[in-house]
Amino acid sequence: MRQNVIALIFGGRSTEHAVSLMSARSLHQALCTLGHSVHCVGIDSSGAWHYQGSPCTFPDKVDTSAPLVTLQPGRRSFIFSRPESAPVEITVDMIFPALHGLYGEDGALQGLSAMCGIPCVGSGILGSAVAMDKDVTKRLVGAAGIAVAPWIASFEMPTWEHVVASLGGGALFVKPACSGSSIGVARVTCESEYREAYAIAQRLDQKVLVEKEIKGREIECGILECNGQVIASQPGEVLPSKDHVFYSYDAKYATQEDSTLLVPSAISPTLALHVQNLSLDIFRCLELKGLARIDFFLRDDDEVILNEVNTLPGFTNASMYPKMLEFSGYSLELIVDALVRTALTAPLET
Asked: Domain count of the chain?
């Protein structure tokens, strides 16, 4: 494969800024190993783009003193300038987003790349926007006949009485409609916990979901487009540590006592195939491209219920997506190579 000039975009304004840096580090190494020319663009917490150069060693953080980057619609390049020097324009073959959450995974970056005519790894504008919104995802997937957890989505906090009457008794989960890495997610069992959790979630997103707790195992499946085929990995399973009721942000990244990521999941071949087929159905239903991680709950009666969809899953040491694909025969370099090839050969959005 010829050497491509790739803009690796990381950081961002979302609450998943730190996770993005961890993912970008792994992707940078893989892209360099594959022989591509990688130009790093870091987005700071205010949303400003900074040119980080083409380093052999990935930076520890976004250098906010680095030159600001601009893109222009219709031009497959980005431009930056240093003090007392002429602007520099670098033509790129594609954008590889190592971004999670708002302004990176929600269709915003995908729209910008489309306006510039630059291929972009992963799903396009529509798929990214739809999958980022958990409420819209549930509506579409549910309409396709796939089971989802009962939920309420609202822009103003419903009363506790209304929530209980709609979703029934027992524990509930409160979460921002458009967020990832379990940030802002809380399990609640009473009105005071509900009010506190809703206020936190609403600081992260105007729309908030309240879901009925589904008791079951957490099963995940990775999807990868490779050589024109859509591949579903062997499913994996998340076993949260005893200190965590669910797979929270702390359970993923912040605690010393790691949760267990079991690959493959200890489920029957028949159930594994069912999870794979459901994942492929959801991938097509939401019009996704390139890659995705589909998360499910597996109940004791073997019913499989969709939890959520991630169109730019993590590539950190704690990330399930690369572990599942590796078990299925795809090293990180093979995954990245497939993503680059797919993005370069896909029709540009107009």
From this structure: 3
Largest CA distance in the chain: 68
Task: Please report the pLDDT score of residue 102 as a whole number.
Answer: 85
Last-in-domain residue among 212, 231, 249? 212
The domain boundary, picked from 69, 102, 120, lies at 120
Residue 125: inside a domain, yes or no?
no
Residue 111 phi, psi (nearest 5): -65, -40
Distance of CA 206 to the CA centre of its chain: 20
Contacts of 296 (CB under 8 A, 6+ apart): 218, 219, 220, 221, 275, 278, 304, 305, 306, 307
Please tell me the pTM assigned to this model: 0.91
Mean pLDDT of the chain: 92
Question: 181 and 329: one domain?
Answer: no
Q: Are 110 and 20 in contact (CB under 8 A)?
A: no
Rg (CA), the chain: 20
Per-residue confidence (pLDDT) for residue 317, from 0 to 100: 86
304 and 338 belong to one structural domain? yes
User: Between 191-204 and 160-167, two packed helices, what is the crossing angle to 10 degrees?
Assistant: 100
